[in-house]
Amino acid sequence: MSTWISERRLPTLLLCLGLAACVPGGPFATARDSTTLTVGGTAVTVAGPGGFCIDPGATRETAESGFALFGNCATIAGRADLPQPDLRAVLTATVSGGAGAATIAGSIDALDGYFRSTAGRRALSRAGDPATVEVLETFQNEAVFYIHARDASPGFAPGMSPDYWRAYFDLAGRIVAVSAIGFDAAPLSRAQSLAALRAFAARIRAANAPEAAAATGPRPAAPV
Fold it and tell me: What is the pTM of this model?
């Protein structure tokens, strides 16, 4: 029996990870590319890739999960001299509470089936409605689970694409989900989305274990 089936807590954590990403933020005010989320008594640093900074009004922390939204640094600070990303996109990072023995790595073979189920599509829906979600593609690479979904529920923000990519991975006893969401006027390609997610995950890993990241070097990417 897989860890996914035997650990009842993991689907609950994934539901929190999905729904946290629909929390709207407040006005952009400052430009920081990292912050610390304290979830379940553990501090986890989330950091954006180059040109992406945190919307402080969209940061959330509860006992179950923490959430941060990243956008264009120059836009957030209102300063054209600050770094800007190559992509026109919004990135989100969500950190779960402790999953105990349940992990992404231990359950990865069952995740495709889960996310195509009613419960899994509910976890992916901004409205918590499985009928709004279509799972377009999934794959796994190096204990990271990637999913491409389309959500027809009300948008994350005006003009944002209903399509998004998300990656799930384990970090320090927590489950982390990172998402890349484009805009209707400038939709992200598959390659752009995956590159953004890999850079985002690598930045978060490095921020939480800089010595280990320096020793192991960059993780090889899966073919696109």
Answer: 0.79
User: E strands along 116-183, which residues?
Assistant: 133-141, 144-151, 160-171, 174-183
d(CA 132, CA 173): 31
N-terminal to C-terminal alpha carbon distance within the chain: 31
Nearest C-alpha neighbor of 35 from the set 22, 48, 23: 48
Backbone phi, psi, residue 55, to 5°: -85, 105
- Give 49-97 pLDDT, tens digit per residue: 989 998 888 888 887 889 999 988 888 878 787 778 888 999 999 998 7
Contact 80, 49 (CB under 8 A): no
Give the span between the Cα atoms of 24 and 55, in whole angstroms: 10
Total structural domains in the chain? Answer: 1
Structural domain boundaries enclosing 172 = 3-211
Tell whether 124 is covered by a domain. yes
User: Which DSSP symbol is given to 132?
Assistant: G
Element of type H or E holding 206 = helix 190-208
Establish if 152 belongs to a structural domain: yes
Please report whether residue 218 resides in a domain. Answer: no
Q: Contact 149/133 with Cβ under 8 angstroms?
A: yes
